[in-house]
Amino acid sequence: MIIRKSIWVFVLIGVLTSAPTILVAANSLAHHPSPYLAMHADDPVNWQVWDEAALKQAQDQNKLIYISVGYFSCHWCHVMQRESYSDNGIAELLNQGFVPVKVDRELRPELDRRLIHFVEETRGTAGWPLNVFLTPDGYPVLGFTYLPRAEFSNVLIQLQQQWQ
């Protein structure tokens, strides 16, 4: 009887230790003081804040920077998070092909103004969520507001193919 229990203990230990471990890497927004940025901490997108490190990463890896600007009470920002940023397929496209940056417009009003101006000039209208792709040197290439998941996915695929 004791031998039988011992065998089950060893089997259980073996199963538990051989089970695949799922690691979820928290993005850099996990402990951000901005409620808007912190709410994106659990997104599968590897969000970064807008800083020199993000620009350097884009230059080192020759990737476009994807900047998503929004604010906490923005309805369409929440919709885009639910539809796109929580989607593993979108996250994979963003994480592999771009340097994804999340910006709270209330903390970076000057950056928000410059990007809004670019989107207004190129699209005729702008708003939030504000989504802009920059070259590794920081020059805007393409910008838009909310897009449904399928359309956003197509933009990511096409832009990545054109950049390569």
Summarize this structure as a short list of keywords or feature phrases:
alpha+beta; Glutaredoxin; globular; 7 helices; four-stranded mixed β-sheet; 164 residues
What's the tally of helices? 7
The main pleated sheet reads as: 4 strands, mixed
Structural class, by secondary structure, is alpha+beta
Count of extended strands? 4
Q: Strand order, biggest sheet?
A: 2-1-3-4
User: Low-confidence stretches at least 5 residues in length (pLDDT < 50)?
Assistant: 4-25
Q: Give, in order, the helices and strands.
A: HHHEHHEHEEH
CA(first)-CA(last) distance: 65 Å
Strand content: 5-15%
**Chain oligomer state:** single chain
Principal-axis shape: globular
Q: Briefly note the CATH topology name.
A: Glutaredoxin
Radius of gyration equals 20 Å
Structural domain count: 1
CATH architecture: 3-Layer(aba) Sandwich
- The average pLDDT is 87
CATH superfamily: Glutaredoxin
Description:
It is built from seven helices and four strands, in the order H-H-H-E-H-H-E-H-E-E-H. By secondary structure, the chain is an alpha+beta fold. The chain has one domain: 3-Layer(aba) Sandwich (Glutaredoxin), CATH 3.40.30. Strands 2-1-3-4 form a four-stranded mixed β-sheet. A hairpin with a 5-residue loop joins strand 3 (130-134) and strand 4. Helix 5 runs parallel beside helix 7 (149-163). The protein is globular, with a radius of gyration of 20 Å. The model is unreliable at 4-25 (pLDDT under 50).
Write the layout of secondary structure elements.
Elements: H1 2-18, H2 35-38, H3 52-61, E1 64-70, H4 75-85, H5 88-97, E2 98-104, H6 109-123, E3 130-134, E4 140-144, H7 149-163
Parallel strand pairs: 1-2
Antiparallel strand pairs: 1-3, 3-4
